[in-house]
Amino acid sequence: MVRLGEIFKRLRFRQVSALLALLLALPLGWKELTGFYAWLSPFILLNSIFGLKSVVFLNLAGLVVLVFVIVKKRWFCRKLCPVGLACDWASSFNSGKKNRIKKIPSIGKWLAIFSLAGAILGFPVFAVLDPTAIFNGFFGAFSHSSSLVVIISLAGFPVLLLIHLFVPGIWCTKLCPLGGLQDEVYRIKEFMVTQMKGDRKTASVSFGGRRLFLASGFGLVSGLFIPKLLKGETKPYFRPPGSVPKKYFDFLCVRCGSCIKTCPSSILIHHKDAEDAVSWMIPEISFEKGYCLEDCNLCSQVCPSGAITLFDTEAKGMLKIGLAEILPQNCLLTQNKECDRCKVACKYNAIKIDIHGPYDALPVINHDKCNGCGACFVICPAEAVRMKHLSSEL
Amino acid sequence: MKRRSFLTHALVAGSALTFGAGCIRKIEPAQTNERQADNPGNSPLSGASITEPARQIPILAETDVLVVGGGPAGVAAAIAASRAGAETYLVERYNHLGGLWTGGLVLPLLSTHAVDKNQQTKQVIHGLGGEMAKRLADMGMAIHEINPVVDPEAAKYVLDEMIRDAGVKMLYHTWGANVIMEGNELKGVFIESKSGRMAVLAKVVIDCTGDGDIFHWAGEQYDEMKYHIGLVHRLGNVDRIDKTKSGYVKMDIGGETPIQSVNWVNMHGEDNQDGVDMLNLSRLQMDYRRQVWENVQKIRQTPGHEEVFLLDTASQLGVRMSRIVDAEYKLTLEDTMTFRNFDDVIGISGAWTTMLYKGKKVRKRERPYWQIPLRSLIPKKTENLLVAGRCFSFERELVEDTRIIGTCLITGHGAGAAAGLAVRERQAVRNLDISKLRKLLVEQNVWLG
Question: What are phi and psi of B96, to 5 degrees?
Fold first, then answer.
């Protein structure tokens, strides 16, 4: 028994947690849980809540962590964070230079406050810097062929480790917005507790201050203006079903890549549009390999930021991705060939073959029923189906 | 921890949680009141009926194997059973063998090829199907190596010869009319012809009617599928089209056949049609013949096409699907996409359409070959009955690959061999020794993977 106790003592919570995070992130088949660590992050949680003014069921996991973070200082960092563990490990190769970072101000909490203030107006600026998102993004990027965007997504985590070889400890203590947020939340709680006790003399913490005011003020301002400044002429793209409107989607998405990794038809890819850097790495649907399955809501299950709203598979018919359109000049039926693949493939009964005579038939798509899943586009042997963007996207 | 600080913690935590739980959002389906309007149908039956008096029916024969329906499946079944040593009768309602393949003018033998585990395209239809294709090709009456298109009259001749050589007793111009049952045991079939109603008693009956008439009468469970019904026709003199003539416009004149001057023209036809409703078939027949005629006239009036003429329309409507039996095993799309192995495999078939599988596109040239198990030919309840042809047991998603000539030849061959073996071994087809069936099929040149 003593032995067991010893082992248990030595068994560090964070090591176990990091191992678990790694297992969940690797493609081992637990598709629903692949983004679970991002769900635990209170930073993503608060950005999501502030941005959307509502929560989804899995947010409760983040809320529980938030409670722990309020009670215990930097509880997430000390007990759960896989990135923190990896950074500490990388730092251990260069432990002599720890004093280097003492002069650097802690930027993390300002990033956090800035983000949250921006989130209220729909633009959580630094939400992408959440460590769990970077961690997940690294594993999400493996699933697809390489492009600059995928490389960026892939690079985040290794770059963090690399930095620690030169400047040990910099991320966790100074830069990480999740860490900064935890510091700030704890400080606010301490402040409230001392206020409630009415013991003003012993109050070693204060709340407010010019910096906080400036950070949140800038955040609000950036939330108002940056999206407008960045919006040039951007090409529309197909977003996962249940996505929030594009203007929110670009910013709310933390680029964790969980949806890309979990998609069973592998139709989600990292969005790359040279002229639209704002939406880089965002999940985009490409109908090259397949279509959006009628009985799947995995992307909405794993999305930690609420960019893809959790939906019931039964509701999928009304969540429009785009619209399918028939190109009669290519359709085999106009060449008197035998084909009804699009009609058979459609799971929403949106396609009817309009027969005027045995030698005069054409598929017709009911756009009220079509949700743009792309099945007809994928199956069409003659490239007679085109996927059209929703008019709200244009 | 002091009581007050504990309370403070609890307060903060509680408020955070209630905030979270208060406004959970999830998109759920709206309640729809939309109801599918039932097809009213067009049954003219008044509801009145009359009793047919009981009568004595002469027994034409007591045989080992009776095959009802002389389409690709029926011909293959009869020859295989006969070659396995069983006395075999074959009942066919028209004046030719080959069913839709020949008289129905659906001339391509799909699908002779598919992809193997090494991504190589290879021929999968061997056995009797391969024999027929080879004989026709040797006669110059089949074009293309993959999915050959045959000449219907040549095919009718070859099938007749093969049936004759195998010693099958042929009953042309005869229609299977009802089953003779003893409990769950099928004893034979009543047949109807110009000679009146007769009975053929058999140890094993193979239902190759395409519409599954036999298992329908026997009271088996089945899926009823309504699908496109068409009427195929052939055009003559297509080699005399003058493309240089002024005013020439390219018209759709169908696909080539082994006869240079003749093309066959497919018709997709109307969807959602009942293939076992005689009144519906009568209506479609009339409509389609008129439409074919008008279409050919339109072609003849187009400059350059004056010499083209309507050679013939098919002797029967192209009923693509009707009944699908619920057999001991229902073949699934998954099986056909994953090289699923069955112990009781009776043949391997190919694929000719692009399919969706698990959300992904599988092009026709990437489609794997697939095994067909004997269990998918054995109905759940009735003894002494096998089902072959387009009505054997499969998921609807597979219909494009299961309803075609090549698969019918494979299931027919498997059913015939199984029936012949069951008679020889005096066993029920349900309890056949699978290793012996495999040996017999291999002897008959069937490829089993």
Answer: -150, 160
